[in-house]
Request: fold
Amino acid sequence: MLRQRVLTALAIAVPLIVLILLAPPWLFGLFILLVVGLGAREWAQLAGFASAGSRATFAAAIPALLALLMLLWWTAGWSVWHLGALALALIWWVFVFVGLAWYSPGLSARPSGRFLLRTGGLLTLVPAGIALLWLHDQAPSLVLYLIALVAAADSAAYFVGRRFGRSKLAPEISPGKTREGLFGALLGAIVVALGGAWLFGLSEIDALVFGLLGVVVALVSVAGDLQESVLKREAGAKDSGALLPGHGGILDRVDSLTAAAPIFLLGLLWTALLAPASH
Reply:
């Protein structure tokens, strides 16, 4: 399985890097819209809708909303609507952090639980798409850095957890994850963040802030992974799909990134490491 995961990741990595670095904003935007659309389709399959029609409506509504916000960006620039979506994402991820600590199986059996699982698709995928578009508009290298940060945290958590893992992190949600793996994820994120600060030519103070932001983003990326694990556990599914050999579905591959992207962007804006965009 690890070999298949690595081969699939390598097959994706080169064209993705080329796309990020060389594609014009409109083409990158269409790519993000495609990924979000595929992710919404998988989310609809997992979110406990009673009919095929309701699943189709849900799966279409999320990319349609993102497309509307993209059109607004292309015609009028970044606006309060985009910032509002990012603010909602921040509130959502704070709520997810609290909710994960109190989670118990059977969430989808309650109407309020089903509502949260479905709302999570909207508040996860749309702000992530906006954040990635915004970052790419500012500097494609920021998108590459974010992907590297999340990948480093995920890989470090996996290998440290396998080697040193003893204490379960969230046994009701993902029995394989450990607290030692979480510490590994944070260490991996710190290494990449400090390397990124050097590559971006930040001052010592800004590099410290950038490193702390990297730690926060890594923590949120873990929450994104756990959120999708809850969604799959409630649906009784091992993977969100079968599109990517060795990885599962689109959500299995981007769950951490969708959580990290809006928080990373908001952190850059809040710390003034990134000026507000004007398209």
